[in-house]
């Protein structure tokens, strides 16, 4: 239509007023440019990591402190004792994943896992920083709660301090390269296992349960070298509260290098086709979107359908 010799276009066709149609899918590496930060994810990841530490440190203290009944019973059987420590610390990750908070954030609860997702293009670098900070803060928060409980309940305090808050310390009688390589290889194997499960349509629901079996089997073989951490946040918080910082740097370098090498191997398809759809280890099917904290299991399609029905009503 012409008016005064000029063409007039509908407002909706103007580029300046065209609505943004891009969805916010931070856990698929496609965050909306207008929303680079995802505080719900970071907060939930913090609580999930705190849950990991609370359950994990309690289990190690109960299983290893010699003044406790369980620790005294297992003391003559160190291989069984260290295997059970791996099992229960791994299952602590399962507990964290099954909380509403873990279901929202995807329950990485480990900077190495978040780094692997970022290197795979499933997590933006801004969100990677948010996740790692949340994991470090959450690990310290969970361990602090146990330290506070130690003040209130001296018997518990004796157990947890004897266990060193489940601190991971390299073996003193071997070259530091052995604990470093242990952390590197352990983390690489962990990432490969998680990708193998999370990327398989038939086995993905087993992903949050796999950590217990993984550490149950590997702890007796290699925990004496490095403590089998594979998790900077998990090692940092106990070191902070126990003061055991011996060669702590291996728990940053080893796991991060291991995670990076595992992603490189995945991209080169050295172990077949291993690919995940989104950066989560639990509650799959959201296609990278952030679930509701109050209804974390409800899929996006279900919410959209409910909105449509509400409008029609």
TrEMBL record:
Annotated membrane topology is: Multi-pass membrane protein
Alphabetized, the UniProt keywords read: Cell membrane, Membrane, Transmembrane, Transmembrane helix, Transport
GO CC annotations, alphabetized: plasma membrane
Instruction: Indicate, by first and last residue, each region the UniProt record lists as having compositional bias (Polar residues).
Output: 9-20
Q: Where are the transmembrane segments?
A: 46-66, 78-101, 107-125, 132-156, 176-197, 209-227, 247-266
**Compartments where located:** Cell membrane
Record's compositionally biased regions (Basic and acidic residues): 21-30
Annotated segments matching region Disordered = 1-30
List the InterPro entries hit by this protein, alphabetically.
Answer: Aquaporin-like (IPR023271), Aquaporin_transptr (IPR034294), MIP (IPR000425), MIP_CS (IPR022357)
Any Pfam family hit: MIP
Q: Which Gene3D superfamilies match?
A: Glycerol uptake facilitator protein
Q: Name one GO molecular function term.
A: water channel activity
| Similarity remark | Belongs to the MIP/aquaporin (TC 1.A.8) family.
Q: What is this protein called?
A: Major intrinsic protein
Q: Which organism is it from?
A: Novacetimonas hansenii ATCC 23769
């Amino acid at each position: 239509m012409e008016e005064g010799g000029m063409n007039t276009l509908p407002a909706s066709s103007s580029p300046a007023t065209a609505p943004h149609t891009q969805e916010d899918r931070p856990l698929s590496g496609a965050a909306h440019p207008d929303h680079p930060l995802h505080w719900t994810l970071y907060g939930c990841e913090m609580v999930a990591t705190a849950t990991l530490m609370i359950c994990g440190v309690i289990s190690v203290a109960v299983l290893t402190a010699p003044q406790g009944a369980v620790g005294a019973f297992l003391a003559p059987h160190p291989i069984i004792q260290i295997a059970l420590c791996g099992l229960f610390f791994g299952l602590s990750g399962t507990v964290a994943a099954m909380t509403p908070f873990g279901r929202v954030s995807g329950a990485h609860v480990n900077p190495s896992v978040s780094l692997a997702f970022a290197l795979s293009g499933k997590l933006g670098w801004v969100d990677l920083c948010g996740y790692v900070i949340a994991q470090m803060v959450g690990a310290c928060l969970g361990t602090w709660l146990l330290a506070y409980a130690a003040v209130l309940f001296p018997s518990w305090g004796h157990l947890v301090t004897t266990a060193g808050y489940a601190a991971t310390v390299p073996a003193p009688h071997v070259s530091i390269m052995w604990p470093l390589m242990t952390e590197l290889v352990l983390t690489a194997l962990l990432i490969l296992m998680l990708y193998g499960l999370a990327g398989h349509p038939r086995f993905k629901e087993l992903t949050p349960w796999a950590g217990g079996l993984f550490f149950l089997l590997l702890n007796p073989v290699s925990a004496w070298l490095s403590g089998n951490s594979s998790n900077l946040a998990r090692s940092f918080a106990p070191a902070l509260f126990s003061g055991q910082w011996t060669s702590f740097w291996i728990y940053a370098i080893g796991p991060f290098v291991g995670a990076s090498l595992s992603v490189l191997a995945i991209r080169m398809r050295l172990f077949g086709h291993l690919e995940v759809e989104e950066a989560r280890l639990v509650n799959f099917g959201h296609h990278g979107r952030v679930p509701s904290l109050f209804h974390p299991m409800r899929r996006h399609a279900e919410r959209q359908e409910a909105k449509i029905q509400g409008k029609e009503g």
